[in-house]
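Researcher: I'd like a structural prediction for the single chain below. Treat it as a standalone chain; there are no partners to consider.
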Amino acid sequence: MWVYAIIGISFIAMGLAVHVFKLYFLISGYNTMPADKKANVDIRSIAKVMGFVFYFDGLLLILVTLLKYLGVTFTMTPIFVILAVSVLFLLIVLQKYDGNLFDENHKLRPGALKKMLIPATFTGLILIVVAGITIWFLQPLEVIMSETYFEIKGLYGDTYDYDKVEHLERVTEIPKIIMRTNGSAIGAHLSGHFKLEKLGAATLFLNTDYKDSIYFEYEGKKIIFNDAPEKLDEIYKTLRDKVD
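Model: Treating it as a single chain, here is the predicted structure.
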């Protein structure tokens, strides 16, 4: 939860650095630009736009932290979409302040479109990939039951034979998470390998907005997963019958 506040404060600090304190050397691209090309760039306007976008993103993440601290439950997907759109907006708007690309009438100079196309395409691909990965990790948990085993779908999922499952129980809270060793933690969605207080290494498939979870041990591994309450009831009943 607090990581959002840390990132938000960092955004605001970056905004202040370029907008208020005019540390223009922090702006990538401009800091390595030849002096003659820098003269054609409206760096003050660029710094101002960057500052306001960073302020907005920073305050948004601090608001997210505050809401989570107060116990308000919500999905982070819209937040990530807003952040992605703000980055895209920043990249597009900043171009018009580069006099090396646009003339005094705000028309593209000859050859400028080609210069813009490569970074724009590259940025677009990055946003698509990041959005795809985020959506993939935010997919609801899927547990498939068969006669002799059950399967937890996903990147860190596996198949588990009923007769090898040990210490199956339903829990209302999990030990404090010390660190994420290999996996994803996007908003309320935790997936992968984590280190927990007292319990040690464990594989988690959790939506922290849900209170109850199922804990079991399998061949020395500790796994905790959950789902919507009505689905979890059905899964636990089936597992209890099969494992017993």
